[in-house]
Amino acid sequence: MTFRYSFMWTWLNLAIALAMAFFMYDGLHPEWWGWLLFSPMFIYMAYETVRKAMYSLTVEGDLITVRVFKSLQYPVSGISAVNVWTAKGRRIAVIAFADGRRFNFPSMLKDFDELVRLLRTKANLPEPD
User: Fold this and answer.
1) For each of the chain's 129 residues, which pLDDT tens digit applies?
2) CA distance readout (Å), 110 to 6, 7, 37, 57
3) How many CA within 13 A on the CB side of residue 75?
4) Residue 104 pairs with which residues in a beta bridge?
5) Is 97 helix (H, G, I), strand (E, B) or coil?
6) R_g of the chain, CA atoms, integer Å
7) How far lies 72's CA from each of 38, 46, 49, in Å?
8) HSE-up of 14 (CA within 13 Å, CB side)?
9) Cα–Cα separations (whole angstroms), residue 37 to 22, 30, 31, 89, 119
């Protein structure tokens, strides 16, 4: 199964980046240095849009494959814990492996709870209290 960000988040990031550029130009008509000060935020918003559009987490057989700009694979059989924490008002799942590695994913992924249950089931871990 493959899990991704909702396209709503991708389009929302793109809309915010374009709105920021439009309102900056329309309202202020900044000089070149004004655009230079503004550009890091616009570039960051564009980067986040592309990252969210490309992100996928696939659970297939005994492998978890995480793809963003490069592909990383983790063995499901090596999972020692699946924890869901609340941070900054959102939930985040932290997957710990027996060899000490960790990776995490946010609750903004579609079917977040289903993904957590799937990983716990495949790793034969008990449900939390």
Assistant:
1) 899 988 888 888 888 888 877 877 676 677 777 778 878 888 888 888 889 889 999 999 899 999 999 999 999 999 999 999 998 888 999 999 999 999 999 998 999 999 999 999 998 888 776
2) 6, 10, 35, 11
3) 7
4) 94
5) strand
6) 19
7) 33, 23, 20
8) 10
9) 15, 10, 10, 30, 44
Backbone angles phi, psi at 24, to 5 degrees: -65, -45
Token readout for 54 is 């490309």
Answer whether 74's CB lies under 8 Å from 103's CB.
Answer: yes
Residue 8: both structure tokens together? 């709503």
